[in-house]
UniProtKB/TrEMBL annotation:
One of its GO terms (molecular function) is fumarate hydratase activity. It comes from the Bacteria. This is Fumarate hydratase class I, aerobic. Its EC number is 4.2.1.2. Pfam families: Fumerase_C. Belongs to the class-I fumarase family. The lineage of its organism: Bacteria, Bacillati, Bacillota, Clostridia, Eubacteriales. Residues 4-175 form the Fe-S hydro-lyase tartrate dehydratase beta-type catalytic domain. The gene is fumA. It comes from Faecalibacterium prausnitzii. Keywords: Lyase.
Length: 185
């Protein structure tokens, strides 16, 4: 199935999604990679406010390249999501609803996705220019000293994504190969 979603999203918005579905995502998406996640957790530990409201948020694990003249963003392909696994459950428990990246996630993230009614979506790795076409505006909102890993607020339009982990425990990295193997026997 294909769905069109606009952020911010609630658990009810995400409940119909199943691993393997396609999502065209519009609205605000925040960028945050390893170092930004580390700073967010440090801020939470100190009781400080985060640079954006986690409730219903979408976080894209990307460190975009510099934009060329006339472009909003440079290449914006996903980074490996597993690097955020130790930090993601806490953010999910605090209201983050959509994670966007590439690659498998650990058991703690999968449990947090189900517990919080969230999803993990995959962006097409190796197609950073394609992903960049969905970005309509960009603003650095926190930690510019991190360079490409600074937190950015993107406005996206119909960003093409695939559901990897759904809120019901579905995992495309498990169900996809199993479905394929049934077809070749």
């Amino acid at each position: 199935m294909q769905y069109e979603l606009t952020t911010p999203c609630t658990a009810a918005d995400l409940a119909p999604l199943k691993a393997g579905d396609t999502v065209l995502l519009s609205g605000v998406v925040y960028t945050a990679r390893d170092q930004a996640h580390k700073r967010m957790l440090e801020a939470l530990d100190k009781g400080e406010k985060l640079p954006f409201d986690l409730e219903g948020s979408a976080i894209y694990y990307v460190g975009p390249t510099p934009e060329r003249p006339g472009e909003v963003i440079g290449s914006a392909g996903p980074t490996t999501s597993g690097r955020m696994d130790a930090m993601s459950p806490r953010l999910l428990d605090l209201g983050n609803k959509i994670m966007i990246g590439k690659g498998k996630r650990d058991a703690a993230v999968k449990e947090a996705v189900v517990r919080s009614g969230a999803v993990y979506l995959a962006a097409l790795g190796g197609a950073g220019a394609l992903m960049a076409q969905s970005v309509k505006t960009l603003e650095v909102i926190a930690w510019p000293d991190l360079g490409c890993e600074a937190v950015r607020r993107l406005t996206v339009e119909k960003m093409p994504l695939t559901v990897i982990l759904d809120a019901h425990g579905g995992d495309l990295y498990t169900s996809g190969p199993a479905a394929y193997l049934k077809t070749v026997k």
